[in-house]
């Protein structure tokens, strides 16, 4: 029986094994026999034994004892043994093993062999597992082979050179002349390898990039020849002439044309020709068109060409292949900030993708739809987004709700529409909204006094219908407690009034208090609302007193504390109850982060996540710990949480509570001096994100500061927000940011103006928190600014 048959027989026996134990037994016996034959000095079947061992290695069993046999076979003068030896080296050896150093001399000798097939074995092995030391030793030999006469050798030598450049980038200069000469080759394999090599050289060396920009006309000529050439059975795939080479050339052109007008102008006509003449009905054509679009968007192309690229992506959205639709929306997401109007033309198709069955496509369509919302299309887009919110998967509800809130806040055509939209979201996906939604909505309702009656009627209906959506219940309880008298009067011009009695309102609030679905925070809202109604109704004050007294022994400490304090208002301080429980004043947006009626000297001014229309703090009637969790956004692990401010008597703690408000920048001494630093300073720089601070006004009682953020990374950043905190006695107000997206490569920036009022002329210190989404991951970081630049220096 010949050795070849023995290998086939071993494979047959292994495959016929019924259990894993039986297979393991067969392999152990074979490995023992192979190991014994390796020990023999003169073994004519070494290559066949190693081939069997490689098959065992492919099955996942240990085969390291064959490494030295690979070294021996590589040194053999026989081609069939060399072939198996090199194959074994590529499979069993890597650059971290000492045995790999033993084959360096053999590879060098084989690179100078007279047979091109032996040379190709050495080239493939070096390209597969060559270490940095091997690459340095053998780089001159590779450079010599790049100039060989055989296209077969040059093709493999170029790929080996690519591996060397990746391992040892400083050796790239050695291959630059040969790589430029390879562009004249007619063989597509050699040309393909040359394009890959030039791409690697240009990405790793700026000087080499400048040199190869002179080769743009040659690349354009090669690419045009591929586009206009007829059918070739060797290279044509689905009607496209060598799409693999076309894609490689387009990627290289994208690198050469980036930030260079001359190179970009030289390839504009070619890109237009490729975009119009390539058939997108097949995957090969779609791949070429996609690379063309990326190239057009990355170079300094003409505006008409960019519109053509967006239209190509729009056609991709109609493709039946979900992968093509996904990459199309990914590309549109990157360019929507710079070519907004062109992308808007495909809004209908993008919105239709929200109905796709694939979750990934839905997510991309949602992100792109939110980016397309503007003041012009806010009503139509919001209708589609709200419809999507009601049917979207649970994992997308939070993202969809957050995006709808941001869009409504930026582009709301009216305050009533804004309130209706938020209430619709709370009704549909109340459990998936962010924590700041409740205080934001409360502030919006407070500031729209003409809609108080309309809002309280609508929220009462929603509360009676469903108490499972906790944020909606919290806002409803707050409004009923504040504007319950409007609800009792039943006079509402904006909507059909509801005839409600005092007992109906108290029944609804008591249902919330007793429901197992209500969280402690929601019960706190309901209890405070019940207490506030004691000054707005006349016939059921005793019932309210009874409800409050019940919760004086509640197991929840926060709720118990509220009830005890409210009981004290009924008994000991009843003469103050009407004044303490009066309606909340309108929250003044120009009060540097404070609301009317709040004390400004006892604690830190702090902002919620900055948004274009309401960056101020909202104080919600929650239990103290809940408000503390909401507002203490910037506290570190060693800093106590900020005490919460609650509505009504719940906020009247002991007399020292106000004095114990902790400075967020704890430990910072306030001194009257301010160091002088440059006019604009970089206060944060990490992962490509850079934040600069500059002052626009003299350092007096009022200080205007501009924060400018840029993104130098290769990935776009979305949902970019800034939060800030300053020491006590300094008032802070953040204006609306210029946007919430940072395109890659610093192509655009986001600016935000911060107004500081420093009447005591204390030393200014600020802590800023950055939050953004990059590559699908949420990133948060904090920076402390201890000195501010003086203007004009």
Instruction: Please tell me the overall pLDDT.
Output: 81
Bin the helical content: 40-55%
Strand content: 5-15%
Number of helices: 33
Indicate the overall shape: elongated
Description:
By secondary structure, the chain is of the alpha+beta class. Helices cover 53% and strands 9% of the residues. The strands form three sheets. The protein has a five-stranded antiparallel beta sheet, with no helix packed on it. A four-stranded antiparallel beta sheet has the order 3-7-10-11, with no helix packed on it. Strands 1-2 form a two-stranded antiparallel sheet. A hairpin with a 6-residue loop joins strand 5 and strand 6 (702-711). The termini are far apart.
Write the layout of secondary structure elements.
Layout (H helix, E strand, L loop, with lengths): L2 H13 L4 H20 L6 H13 L8 H8 L4 H14 L11 H8 L4 H14 L2 H14 L5 H17 L4 H10 L6 H17 L1 H7 L3 H13 L7 E2 L2 E2 L1 H15 L3 H17 L5 H16 L4 H14 L5 H14 L4 H5 L2 H6 L6 H14 L5 H14 L2 H18 L3 H15 L7 H11 L4 H14 L4 H20 L12 H13 L5 H13 L8 H10 L6 H15 L5 H4 L24 E2 L17 H8 L48 E7 L2 E7 L6 E10 L5 E10 L4 E4 L14 E9 L8 E9 L2 E9 L8
Antiparallel strand pairs: 1-2, 3-7, 4-5, 5-6, 6-9, 7-10, 8-9, 10-11
Helix pairs in contact: 1-2, 1-3, 2-3, 3-5, 4-5, 5-7, 6-7, 7-9, 8-9, 9-11, 10-11, 11-12, 11-14, 13-14, 13-15, 14-16, 15-16, 15-17, 16-17, 16-18, 17-18, 18-21, 21-23, 22-23, 22-24, 23-24, 25-27, 26-27, 27-28, 27-29, 28-29, 29-31, 30-31
């Amino acid at each position: 029986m010949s050795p070849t048959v023995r290998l086939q027989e071993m494979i047959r026996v292994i495959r016929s094994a019924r259990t894993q134990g039986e297979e393991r037994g067969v392999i152990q016996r074979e490995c023992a026999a192979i190991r014994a034959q390796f020990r023999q000095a003169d073994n004519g079947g070494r290559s066949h034994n190693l081939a069997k061992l490689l098959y065992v290695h492919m099955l996942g069993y240990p085969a390291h004892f064959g490494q030295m046999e690979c070294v021996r076979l590589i040194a053999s003068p026989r081609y069939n043994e060399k072939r198996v030896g090199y194959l074994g080296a590529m499979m069993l050896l890597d650059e971290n093993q000492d045995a790999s150093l033993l084959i360096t001399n053999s590879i060098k000798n084989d690179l100078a062999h007279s047979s091109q097939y032996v040379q190709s074995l050495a080239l493939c092995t070096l390209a597969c597992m060559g270490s940095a030391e091997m690459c340095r030793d053998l780089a001159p030999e590779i450079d010599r082979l790049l100039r060989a006469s055989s296209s077969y050798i040059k093709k493999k030598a170029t790929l080996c050179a690519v591996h060397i450049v990746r391992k040892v980038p400083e050796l790239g200069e050695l291959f630059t002349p040969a790589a430029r000469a390879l562009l004249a080759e007619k063989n597509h394999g050699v040309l393909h390898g040359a394009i890959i090599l030039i791409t690697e050289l240009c990405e790793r060396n700026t000087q080499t990039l400048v040199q190869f920009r002179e080769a743009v006309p040659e690349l354009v000529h090669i690419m045009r020849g591929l586009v206009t050439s007829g059918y070739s059975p060797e290279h044509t795939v689905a009607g496209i002439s060598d799409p693999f080479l076309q894609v490689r050339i387009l990627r290289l052109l994208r690198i050469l044309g980036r930030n260079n007008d001359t190179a970009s102008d030289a390839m504009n006509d070619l890109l237009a020709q490729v975009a119009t003449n390539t058939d997108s009905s097949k995957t090969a054509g779609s791949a070429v068109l996609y690379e063309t679009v990326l190239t057009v968007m990355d170079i300094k192309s003409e505006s008409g060409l960019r519109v053509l690229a967006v239209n190509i992506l729009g056609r991709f959205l109609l493709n039946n292949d979900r992968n093509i639709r996904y990459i199309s929306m990914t590309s549109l997401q990157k360019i929507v900030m710079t070519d907004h109007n062109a992308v808007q033309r495909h809004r209908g198709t993008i919105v239709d993708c929200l109905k796709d069955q694939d979750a990934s496509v839905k997510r991309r369509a949602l992100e792109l739809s939110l980016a397309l919302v503007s003041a012009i299309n806010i009503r139509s887009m919001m209708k589609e987004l709200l419809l999507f919110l009601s049917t979207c998967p649970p994992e997308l509800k939070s993202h969809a709700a957050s995006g709808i809130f941001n869009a409504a806040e930026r582009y709301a055509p009216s305050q009533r529409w804004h309130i209706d939209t938020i209430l619709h979201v709370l009704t549909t996906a109340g459990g998936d909204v962010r924590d700041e939604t409740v205080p934001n909505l409360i502030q919006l309702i407070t500031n729209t006094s003409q809609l108080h009656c309309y809002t309280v009627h609508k929220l009462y209906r929603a509360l009676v219908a469903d108490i499972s959506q906790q944020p909606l219940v919290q806002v409803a309880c707050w409004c009923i407690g504040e504007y319950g008298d409007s609800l009792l009067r039943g006079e509402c011009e904006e909507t059909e009034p509801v005839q409600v009695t005092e007992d109906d309102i108290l029944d609804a609030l008591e249902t919330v208090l007793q429901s197992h679905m209500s969280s402690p925070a929601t019960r706190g809202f309901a209890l405070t609302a019940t207490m506030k109604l004691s000054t707005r109704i006349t016939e059921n004050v005793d019932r309210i007193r009874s409800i409050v007294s019940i919760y004086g022994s509640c197991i929840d400490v926060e709720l118990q504390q509220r009830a005890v304090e409210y009981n004290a208002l009924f008994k000991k301080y009843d003469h103050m109850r009407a004044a303490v429980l009066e309606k909340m004043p309108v929250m003044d947006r120009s009060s540097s982060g404070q609301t009317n009626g709040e004390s400004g000297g006892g604690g830190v001014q702090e902002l919620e996540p900055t948004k274009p229309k309401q960056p101020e703090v909202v104080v919600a009637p929650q239990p103290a710990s809940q408000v503390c969790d909401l507002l203490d956004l910037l506290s570190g692990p060693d800093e106590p949480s900020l005490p919460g401010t609650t509505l009504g008597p719940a906020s009247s703690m002991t007399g020292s509570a106000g004095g114990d408000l902790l400075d967020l920048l704890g430990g910072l001494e306030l001194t009257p001096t301010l160091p002088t630093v440059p006019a604009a300073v970089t206060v944060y720089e990490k992962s490509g994100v850079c934040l600069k601070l500059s002052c626009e006004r003299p350092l007096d009682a009022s200080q205007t500061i501009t924060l400018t953020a840029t993104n130098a990374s290769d990935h776009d950043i979305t949902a970019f927000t800034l939060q800030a905190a300053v020491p006590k006695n300094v008032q802070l107000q953040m204006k609306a940011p210029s946007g919430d997206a940072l395109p890659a490569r610093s192509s655009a920036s986001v600016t935000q103006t911060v107004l500081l009022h420093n009447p005591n002329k204390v030393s200014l210190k600020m802590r800023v928190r950055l939050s953004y989404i990059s590559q699908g991951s949420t990133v948060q970081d904090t920076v402390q600014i201890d000195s501010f630049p003086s203007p004009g220096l």
